[in-house]
Design a protein that fits this description.
167 residues; mainly alpha; 6 helices
Length: 167
C-alpha cells in the first residue's frame, strides 16, 4: 500500500506545484515526476535492505546482492530518464519491460513469505500477491500512459493545432 501512497501523493503534489508555477495542470510531467519519486523510494529499499531483497531471488541465481544493487541503479536511471522528455519514451519502454521482468521475484517472495525489511521468512505470503500483481499492472499502465501514450497524444494535438493555425 505504501508504494501506491507514494505515487498518489507525489502526483498530487507535483500537479499543485506545476499549477502554482505555470498556471497550468501539467499532467504528463506530474505523472512522470510521481513515478520517478516511486522509483527513488524503491531505490532506497535496494540500498537499505539488500539482504532481504536478495532473498526475493531463487537459490539458483548467483550474485543476488549484486543484482539487487544493479537493479537499484537501473531504477535510479529510470527515475531520471522519465524526467527528461528526450529520454522519456525509451525509458518508459525499458521500464515496462523491467517491471514485467521483476514480477517473478515478487511472486517468489510471496510464496516464500520473504519480509525484505527484516530478511526473514515472516512476510505476508501468498495473500500479498492479491495486492502486488494488480499493483504491478497498475504501475505498467501508469508508465505507458504518462511516458508513451499521453506524450504521443499531445504531439498529435500540437501538430493539428499548428496545421490549423497556419491556414
Amino acid at each position: 500500500m505504501l508504494p501506491f501512497l507514494v505515487l498518489a501523493s507525489a502526483l498530487l503534489l507535483s500537479l499543485f506545484i506545476s499549477r502554482l508555477i505555470t498556471g497550468k495542470w501539467k499532467f504528463t510531467l506530474s505523472g512522470n515526476v510521481a513515478m520517478s519519486c516511486l522509483l527513488v523510494f524503491a531505490v532506497v529499499g535496494h540500498f537499505m535492505y539488500p539482504v532481504g531483497m536478495a532473498m526475493m531471488l531463487p537459490a539458483f541465481i548467483p550474485f543476488k546482492v549484486a543484482i539487487i544493487y544493479v537493479t537499484g541503479f537501473i531504477e535510479l536511471a529510470a527515475a531520471i530518464g522519465l524526467l527528461l522528455p528526450a529520454w522519456r519514451y525509451i525509458t518508459s519502454i525499458l521500464l515496462i519491460l523491467f517491471l514485467i521482468f521483476i514480477l517473478p521475484a515478487n511472486v517468489y517472495a510471496a510464496i516464500h513469505e520473504v519480509d525484505l525489511t527484516t530478511a526473514t521468512h515472516s512476510g505476508p505470503g501468498l495473500p500479498y500477491l492479491w495486492f502486488r500483481i494488480p499493483l504491478q499492472l497498475f504501475f505498467i499502465i501508469w508508465v505507458w500512459y504518462f511516458g508513451i501514450h499521453r506524450p504521443a497524444k499531445l504531439r498529435r494535438e500540437s501538430r493539428t493545432q499548428l496545421a490549423v493555425s497556419s491556414h
